[in-house]
Amino acid sequence: MARVARAWYVLCESRELGQRPLARELLGVPLVLFRDAEGKPGCLLDRCPHRNVPLSLGRVVPGGRLECRYHGWQFETSGRCALVPGLLGGSETRERRAPACAVREAHGLVWVWGGLDQQPDAEPFALLPLERGYARVLRRVAAEGTLHATLENALDVPHTAFLHRGLFRGAGKKNEILATVRRSADRVEVEYQGEPRPSGLVGAILSPSGGTVEHWDRFILPSIAQVEYRLGRESHLTVTAFGTPVSDFVTHLYAVVDFRSPLPNWLVRPFLEPVALSIFRQDATVLRAQTENVRAFGGEQYMSTEIDLIGPHIWRLLKQAESGTLGSEETSVERAVRFLA
Amino acid sequence: MARVARAWYVLCESRELGQRPLARELLGVPLVLFRDAEGKPGCLLDRCPHRNVPLSLGRVVPGGRLECRYHGWQFETSGRCALVPGLLGGSETRERRAPACAVREAHGLVWVWGGLDQQPDAEPFALLPLERGYARVLRRVAAEGTLHATLENALDVPHTAFLHRGLFRGAGKKNEILATVRRSADRVEVEYQGEPRPSGLVGAILSPSGGTVEHWDRFILPSIAQVEYRLGRESHLTVTAFGTPVSDFVTHLYAVVDFRSPLPNWLVRPFLEPVALSIFRQDATVLRAQTENVRAFGGEQYMSTEIDLIGPHIWRLLKQAESGTLGSEETSVERAVRFLA
Amino acid sequence: MARVARAWYVLCESRELGQRPLARELLGVPLVLFRDAEGKPGCLLDRCPHRNVPLSLGRVVPGGRLECRYHGWQFETSGRCALVPGLLGGSETRERRAPACAVREAHGLVWVWGGLDQQPDAEPFALLPLERGYARVLRRVAAEGTLHATLENALDVPHTAFLHRGLFRGAGKKNEILATVRRSADRVEVEYQGEPRPSGLVGAILSPSGGTVEHWDRFILPSIAQVEYRLGRESHLTVTAFGTPVSDFVTHLYAVVDFRSPLPNWLVRPFLEPVALSIFRQDATVLRAQTENVRAFGGEQYMSTEIDLIGPHIWRLLKQAESGTLGSEETSVERAVRFLA
């Protein structure tokens, strides 16, 4: 298990956070999100300091304070207790704070810093603005897997021919592929050369006229899995998935899908979405079963080969970030690996 | 957590204990209740000493013994094993006891002493006989809360304006109220002065013509919460709730409601009962959510103010009773507190 | 709790193991069974050494190897990893084994040795071939009980008059019965003399014309419960139940029922099976309740009498087998006990 607390994680989409408080969990800790009078989001520990009732049971009162359901204590997004109903004599000024998390809102996502009452030492990952001719779709998937297992699954190539047989990669003739792994301080990238056009449905939709394939997989700390495909001249797909460690064995992925295609979007999406959904369902099934075994046997006991190109790097980067030793190893390493796919 | 074992608790209503054994849990221990040939209730550990099968799966045989479902061993209410079927040669006289609890039956309730094979050093709380013109109703409610949290909830005034908004106390203009807290060796009483007639439905039903309010809340060891209201000349309501610590996080309340009202009972009860039920449901919801947080965070972490008039006293009395240090502090303290309600 | 790992246990019937891998649990360990190209059964730890996904999610490929669902690694029944798809350069020869259990198939049952990568030091219990005029039925029942509790239940006589009242033994006049207990190194046998014909349905079906009864109950290590009845000249019934310790509190019994009866089989079975099913349901209910108490109280706390003829012997033999001290006590003891039934 790797737990990186000092980092930004996506807790919800902007559109999910309206007038009502929203309960979320991050790294096993219950949190509550709400918006103040100006619409700025805040995030508190979801436990009233008075009698420990979840603040998410309450409501946001006019003025943008979060009111506890039990005794009506009111909290600002800073965590300051602004009112203890019934108490005489300046009760409002006392320090009866609810611990708070730093919050950012960008790209239609609400980000929360993974520690209570901490000053962030960085800003969330900035998505590039959408270029002309591209469409963007936002999706969340939930997996019963550790952060590491879920991110490796999102970036792992060899499993696609088996777990997603027929959907993603076929079982036909195999090509030798050259993968170049580039590691730097906070990320790892794998570039694939010689990859045939994906067979099956996905390929037919993305690149109807065939053509060459350019393909990169990237892991970026603390929890970002990015897959980029260029097929032929016109198709370009980038999936940037932000992993949220809900608890040790539950991970959510907020995926931002940017794509350009020779076909119109209204034609592509009805085909692509059911396929993507089937792939997620197959991944979720395997992750849940994997997690059951990991729990039953008291931990992961993995036996990697040289074609597990990215998983061991994710693990090392997460453990470095967890222990605060990031950048202590040599970085900017590049390595080439050949395999069949 | 406070666990007071050496005390009387209500395990069922008299009418619930008929011809069949009744399984109950007290302080996490499974118990079985049954009546002997004279109808006197007994209470044994719900585990046959022979093969550990719950005795409550069995039946009461003619003669008032409890027969185990598995091998037919028979037990008297004293716990004595009176028969091992098949065994030759005086088997009935041997000591193969099932541990037993002392039992009392009064006021339509069956009380059990919270320790196995112990001699009680007191008698259960005696209710006063019902006066002329009063009606009595008996109700049980179940809460997923500790004994302390459930009893505080039953006696806590400030939460009523928030959790029971509209049902119990309104959100209108507030009055300054004087509360007098009186502590003695085994109890604490709070008397309220200056309290307006309850607004909302409850007030309208109890005191249609208005009038002054007299109000006392009492906690009496080991687990009794008593609320007494006098409204105007004619309305008088006393709720005496006996708390049963089923397990660490489950508490049952056996509430005896005595009341006199200017309106006839047949008119009052159809109005009062749905309101009381709604109140209990709201309390149960908050107690369950509070308990989840208490368990997730490894204990209660409360931040009380001076208007938490009774909860901290309940806590101290329970802990004194648990550790056997009752009466070691100075008693008969009286303190006045002002607040808005 | 007694856990005997170095022994053979039945994991499934032969007919249950077809083209698809079969997930089973033994002593709390997840295992997967499958057949190789020749139809020979194999058994591996149900966890791929690569990413810990259960191999039972996969499929058996032509050639009789088990293919992991996630990345397609292929395993032989020996546990040898024969293929890592995509890996270049002799990957198939490397040792990436899945731990394996020894397997035997006989009497329509598949037996597995209770340790990974161990050489068995014995062979499974051999059933005698079915004699002329006999019929054989194979049945599995599942109980929520320890191996010891489930086997004692299968062989215990005194409970039948209570738990199975009306079905198995009546509540009528009792006879004095002589039981002779014979112990040897790996087993215990009880022979009953003076037993009346079973009353109730079972007796009426098995021995319509009455006659004397001969009855033996046997426990044979590691987990065999055998009941043999001869009624009159013609009826003969032997139930040999192989106990499988699925986990600490779940036991399966694979029962082989051999019988000869004066009535034709097509007439006997429709009567006998519903009765047997009712008996198993009653036993399962009591075992589940017993197990709940055993878990709640942190272990079995039994109070046996001299008419618990076989349970204490089962316990001692299991504990001797577990600790490897079998045969250290004097064996071939014979003891007579009288009781009423």
How is this structure best described in words?
The structure is a homotrimer of 341-residue chains. Chain A contains five helices and 19 strands. The first copy, chain A, has helices spanning 147-155, 160-163, 200-206, 265-296, 311-323, and strands at 8-13, 22-26, 29-35, 41-45, 59-61, 65-67, 74-75, 81-83, 100-101, 103-106, 109-113, 135-143, 176-184, 187-193, 213-220, 224-231, 235-247, 250-260, 333-340. Helices cover 19% and strands 35% of the residues of chain A. An eight-stranded antiparallel beta sheet of chain A has the order 12-18-17-16-15-14-13-19, covered by helices on one side. In chain A, α3 packs antiparallel against α4 (265-296). In chain A, a hairpin with a 2-residue loop joins β10 (103-106) and β11. With 341 residues, the first copy, chain A, is α+β, with helices and mostly antiparallel strands. At the A-B interface, loops of A face α2, α4 and β19 of B.
Summarize the structure.
With 341 residues, chain A is of the alpha+beta class.
Provide the descriptors you would attach to this structure in a database record.
four-stranded antiparallel beta sheet; eight-stranded antiparallel beta sheet; 341 residues; homotrimer; alpha+beta; 5 helices; 19 strands
